[in-house]
Automatic annotation (TrEMBL):
<protein>
    <submittedName>
        <fullName>Uncharacterized protein</fullName>
    </submittedName>
</protein>
<feature type="signal peptide">
    <location>
        <begin position="1"/>
        <end position="16"/>
    </location>
</feature>
<keyword id="KW-0732">Signal</keyword>
<dbReference type="InterPro" id="IPR011024">
    <property type="entry name" value="G_crystallin-like"/>
</dbReference>
Length: 65
């Protein structure tokens, strides 16, 4: 799951750096159905452990890609 999220965030960051007209948001939560600890990102995040989300993400939503 962590690898998938990192790949997704890297893809979003690459696309955003190529064309700044795209606006994107990524919302991740520690529990299913967007419950528990949630964070929203609109820029690359190299270390999810800084947000206490390392290996615990159960739901994710990406908009604007």
């Amino acid at each position: 799951m962590k690898s998938l999220l990192l790949m997704l965030l890297a893809t979003v960051a690459t696309q955003a750096s190529e064309d700044r007209s795209y606006v994107y948001d990524t919302r991740v939560c520690s529990e299913a159905n967007f419950q528990g600890v949630c964070h929203e990102f609109n820029e690359p995040v190299p270390y999810l452990s800084n947000y206490n989300l390392d290996n615990i993400i159960s739901s994710i939503e990406v908009t604007g890609v």
